[in-house]
Amino acid sequence: MSKKSVLFVASEGLPFIKTGGLADVIGSLPKELVKQGMDVRVVLPLYLKIAVNNHADFDYVSSFDVRAGDIQSMANVYQQVVDGVTFYFIEHRDYFERKDLYGYDDDAMRFGFFQHATCRLLEALHYFPDVIHTHDWHTAAIPFLCRTFYSYREEFRTIKHVFTIHNLAFQGIFNKQALWSALGMDYSYYVDGIARFHDDCISFMKLGILYADKVTTVSETYAQEILTEEFGEHMEHVLELRRHDLFGIVNGIDYDTWNSQTDDHLVQPYSLETIQQKKANKLALQAQFGLAQDEHVMLVGIVSRLTWQKGFYLLTEVLNQLLQAHVQFVILGNGETDIENAFHYFKHAHPDKFAFYQGYNEPLAHQIYAASDLFLMPSMFEPCGISQLISMHYGTLPLVRETGGLRDTVPPYNIVTKEGCGFSFWGKDAYNMKQVYDLALDTYYNRPEDWQQLIRQAMTADVSWTASAKRYIDLYNEITY
Ligand code: ADP
Ligand code: GLC
């Protein structure tokens, strides 16, 4: 029997381009699926950064016209194979060779083009996978396009679709004109309500939810949460229609990239057996940021997009109080100006214990995961979260809010049984967080054997892709029988 083939289509993916956890998933799940016997390929846009860093290594694949609505242009396609996964890159210099990945006025046209170009690529290659697995709004219209625009071909009609929601907060909502201009579809899909979302608008994500055979999201708790008004972002009624085809499959991390014994970015590699060597990374980070070099002080790390989602308004509310303790904070991230400004303020107010690096920095992220004792992630909502998985794997205990994937992946410390891999709180009050932070401090300073036990439990927890990749394979098998 030939291998089952799955085509991933996404707006970012490692090792080529990353702004957040989606790229981690696209860079690691296909690789694991290949290991487990699937044929997996990935399509990405050829962004400026990829053009600059990787283009020279690519092989040319094909060029073809893409025509749909107001889109009339040429796509060039290149490829590279990484760890058994074939990556295709769709080149359109005007649309993709820009400073940022998202946030442009013509995003509907850019990702409309990307999705049509992906379908055209399948025709050009005569490659029709068993399953197309799309991710987030940027690729969510593909199941719809295959079953409408491209349905003149039997091969498109028979492809099955899995659509994964990584973050329901971003839904690809555009003026209804985009139905024609960006997707090349007529207004009947607005008029009958299928594509319609809010007044005068359509949502790409809604099309993915309605037209995919199975809809998944990245943790079981988030799969439940998005059916409620609180987390549903007005999409809960649409999701309700697909309740029986909606599954939560928790993310894993790439054990090759995130390996504290072989991580090139660390001054001192370490493992559970040599955990005392972890502190050399702490001393190096303290030196790098001009903080007192003290291996005993509790070092709190954060690596994150700085947005409301991540709970930073809770943090800034009580940060002055958190800094009263014998602690140091090192924060890496960028995002909303208010949060960046608040962190700059704390850096100036507490230069001896608070360090902030504004920006995106891969090596520094590795160093913070390795150097810290506690990793703070008080998200208001979190579909899965990759950062808490990395920190556990690096023996850095996460302190999280019990929501979405954080709830599913961080069993909290139980002072009696000593179970757990970190600390968690549930309420939305900054003082709920402070209480658990105090428990973490107390444990760190006064019950060091408990702290060591939590580290052992965190570092031996299975946060790999092995089990979740199997669940995806089961899902692919179920729809392709
Ligand atoms: P999200 O995708 O919502 O941003 P995740 O926890 O799923 O959150 O994934 C975030 C990923 O991006 C992690 O791999 C994290 O290490 C990385 N990351 C976030 N901010 C930065 C940054 N400023 N510099 C380097 N890596 C970052
Ligand atoms: C999104 C979510 C994050 C998740 C990631 C990968 O960015 O915010 O929780 O881990 O996608 O699935």
Automatic annotation (TrEMBL):
GO molecular function: alpha-1,4-glucan glucosyltransferase (ADP-glucose donor) activity; alpha-1,4-glucan glucosyltransferase (UDP-glucose donor) activity
The protein's annotated pathway: Glycan biosynthesis; glycogen biosynthesis
Pfam family, any one: Glyco_transf_5
Domain Glycosyl transferase family: 295-414
Keywords, sorted A to Z: Glycogen biosynthesis, Glycosyltransferase, Transferase
Residue span, Starch synthase catalytic domain: 6-240
Source domain of life: Bacteria
Top class in the EC scheme: transferase
Role description: Synthesizes alpha-1,4-glucan chains using ADP-glucose.
NCBIfam families cross-referenced by the UniProt entry: glgA, PRK00654.1-1, PRK00654.1-2
Family (UniProt): Belongs to the glycosyltransferase 1 family. Bacterial/plant glycogen synthase subfamily.
Name of the protein described by the UniProt record: Glycogen synthase
Species assigned in the record: Streptococcus cuniculi
Gene behind this protein: glgA
